[in-house]
Amino acid sequence: MFSKKEEKITYTVEKCMSCNTMVKRKFKTGDFLFKETSECQSCKGKILIEKIFAETIKA
Ligand SMILES: [Zn+2]
After folding, report:
1. Looking at the 3D structure of the chain, how many domains does it have?
2. Edge-to-edge strands of the sheet including 36-39?
3. Is 59 within the bounds of a domain?
4. Ligand 1 centre and the CA of 9: distance in Å?
5. How many helices (H) and strands (E) does the chain have?
6. Per residue of the chain (59 residues), what is the pLDDT tens digit?
7. Is 39 part of a structural domain of the chain?
8. Which member of 31, 32, 44, 50 lies 3.0 to 4.6 Å from 15 by CB, making a disulfide possible if both were Cys?
9. What is the Å distance from ligand 1's center to 16 Cα?
């Protein structure tokens, strides 16, 4: 029997629409593409979710 120990971690990439600052963080429940999440700390622009992806980590 195969026993693969793999852990998947989902990440969310947020991007400011005004200054293009990108921040990668761990996925939170309720995240979806192009959701407006917060306000940019440097330019007060809108921050939207640009990308959601999963990385598989082999233990
Ligand atoms: Zn900004």
Report:
1. 1
2. 22-26, 6-16, 46-58, 36-39
3. no
4. 26
5. 0, 4
6. 667 788 999 999 999 999 999 999 999 999 999 999 999 999 999 999 999 999 998 87
7. yes
8. 50
9. 5
Asked whether the beta carbons of 6 and 55 are under 8 A apart, the reply is no
Identify the domain containing residue 40 by its residue range. Answer: 1-20+28-45
* pTM listed for this prediction: 0.82
State the distance from the centre of ligand 1 to the C-alpha of 11, rounded, in angstroms. Answer: 20
Q: How far is ligand 1, taken at its centre, from the CA of residue 7, in Å?
A: 33
Distance 39 CA to ligand 1 centre (A): 8
Does 57 map to a domain?
no
Classify residue 40: in a domain, yes or no: yes
CA distance 28 to 31: 6
